[in-house]
Amino acid sequence: MSTLAPAPPRTRKQIPGLRLSLPFYVFKPWLKFGEPIRLFEYLRRTYGNIAQYRFLGTPIVFVNEPRMIQQILIQDAHRYVKERTVRRMKILLGEGLITSDEPIHMRQRRIAAPAFHRQRIAAYGDQIVAIAAAQREHLRDGEVIDIAAATMQLSLEIVARTLFATEVTDDIRRINDEVNTIMELYNFIVAFPRIELFLNWPIPGLVRFRRAKARLDAVVNRLIHQRREEVAQGLPDRGDLLSMLLRSVDDEADADGRHTGMSDEQLRDEVLTIFLAGYETVANGLAWTWYLLSQNPEVEARLHEEVDRVLGTGDTARLPTLADYASLRYTEQVFAEAMRLYPPAWAMGRMAIEDTTLGEYDVPRGAHVFFSQYILSRDPEYFPDPLRFDPERFTPEAKAARPRFAYFPFGGGSRQCIGEAFAWMEGVFSIATMAQQWRMVYTGTEPPVPQAKITLRPRDPLRMRLVRR
Ligand code: HEM
Q1: DSSP 3-state assignment of 100?
Q2: Which residues line ligand 1 (CB under 6 A)?
Q3: Quick one: which of 154, 279, 275, 153 has its CA closest to 223?
Q4: Which SS3 state, helix, strand or coil, does residue 332 take?
Q5: What is the pLDDT of residue 11?
Q6: Can you give 297-326 as a three-state secondary structure string?
Q7: What percentage of the chain has pLDDT greater than the value 90?
Q8: Could you give the C-alpha distances from 13 to 53, 147, 184, 360, 408, in angstroms and in order?
């Protein structure tokens, strides 16, 4: 009679990496405060697909392998929550889509989804084009502009119009200023241990945060109340994102069988979240696009060829409309390739809420797992000759030949960017509208330096000379 042999013990591999806690490496050239990409590049170079280190007692795993990223974001998503620095932002963004956990997130996402539906955001296409067209009218031949500031302004006007159905009024400027004040305090907020317990203490950074947050809440609350009033009076829908969010109700009933919408507090959290998530990201993506076009005349010429073919030239030239979107394929590839080299969201992270595994490795509960769009999308395995700017990498065939998570500027899984379709439309339409009339020539002598803040932005002004086509 045969007996079953006991199963062999699972052989798990040890994650390679730094032996000492991170601060011990403070004199290494790859560890520099405020330059996290250096560390990630070093880990990738030295350890390959997966590496680990410790920081203030927390085990951190850095992953560079598309299938493992897919496992974290999709198959094993329920084993993780957002990592600590994002969770910290709850003090600003409350339980908005970026910061909330399940099950709150799922409900908010269901209610918000119709506002971001492809058909719904199609209505914003004309507004994006109108705003970009107005901006290009102010440009002068030969003038030198900071394109990073110009794309920020463009993006701010687009968010004001599409989120609040308004111009950039004082209210919008106030929101922008207060968000910027708070973002300047970001590193302080993230580094402050157990900040939630100290929010009301008279510590200078926290006092500034509290004041900015109070002013911010006051403006946004007022906008929400005005809009609720309009709804109560039966005034017509303004067709903006705020109206959609305000009218939308959960299609799943609550315990009392009611289909409810968002409270004012939830609305405020979502409005701030969308403002923060949707504005600087696109602006930086566009600024890098213009820089890269200025360095790659052949790509620029192909872009011009497409824009002229689709939209006409001379007296017959017209502004893009929604019907043109599908024809502006190369324009979309240009934006995709720019976000490969300079992904606005340059890294993401999660925290394991149970002991789990990743590929053939163990990941303990409490470990932080990070992965970087910047590192992956410059990996020669997936993008040969990675520093070359080549929009051909984004033909449908080329995309299909790569693993899903070799390129993920918008994340993936249940927390994938809800504004992705919006961002593509904003990118493609504003590039096409501007490229129809203008070229830009980079006036710097050195390549611009990317700075990994919340988004990947140029460290210094990105000065471009405008040349009328
Ligand atoms: C080029 C532009 C953009 C980039 C690169 C980008 C990137 C991302 C990424 C990577 C995430 C996932 C974060 C994570 O899982 O940890 C995300 C989430 C999100 N994004 Fe975007 N985004 C962009 C534009 C926008 C726009 C235009 C909006 C709104 C109008 C927006 C709203 C959001 C929201 C609300 C979330 C949270 C979604 C959720 O967890 O359910 N984003 N974005």
Answers
A1: coil
A2: 97-98, 109, 273-274, 277-278, 281-282, 285, 344-345, 348, 409-411, 415, 417-419, 422-423
A3: 275
A4: helix
A5: 60
A6: HHHHHHHHHHHHHHHCCHHHCCCCCHHHHH
A7: 59
A8: 15, 48, 41, 6, 27
Q: Which CATH architecture has domain 17-124+147-279+341-416?
A: Orthogonal Bundle (1.10)
* Ligand 1 pocket test, candidate residues 370, 417, 420, most atoms within 8 A of CB: 417
Instruction: Find where tokens 């007022």 sit.
Output: 222
Structure tokens at 343: 């992904």
Averaged pLDDT, 223-231: 88
Calculated CA dihedral for residues 414, 416, 419, 425, nearest 10 degrees:
-130
pLDDT at 431 over 60: yes
Q: Contact at 8 Å (CB) between 272 and 220?
A: yes
Residues 6+ apart with CB under 8 A from 11: 360
Q: In sequence order, which residues have a C-beta less than 8 Å from that of residue 63 and are 6 or more positions away?
A: 49, 50, 69, 72, 358, 369, 370, 371
- Count of positions (residues) in the chain: 469
Domain boundaries, the chain: 17-124+147-279+341-416
The number of the ligand 1 atom at minimal distance from the alpha carbon of 343 is 5
Alpha-carbon distance of 368 to 83, in angstroms, equals: 6
Give CA separation, 70 vs 157, 281, 402, 408, in Å.
Answer: 35, 23, 13, 10
CA distance 394 to 398: 6
- Please enumerate in sequence order all residues whose Cβ is within 8 A of that of 458, keeping only pairs 6 or more positions apart, or say none: 148, 284, 287, 288, 291, 448, 449, 450, 451
Q: Cis before residue 6, ω within 30 degrees of 0?
A: no
- Indicate the helix (H) or strand (E) that contains 128: helix 118-137
Find tokens 């929009």 and name the residue: 391
Q: Is the pLDDT of residue 3 over 60?
A: no
Q: Do 441 and 143 contact (CB within 8 A), yes or no?
A: no
Pairing of strands 361-363, 450-452: unpaired
Mean of per-residue pLDDT scores for the chain = 90
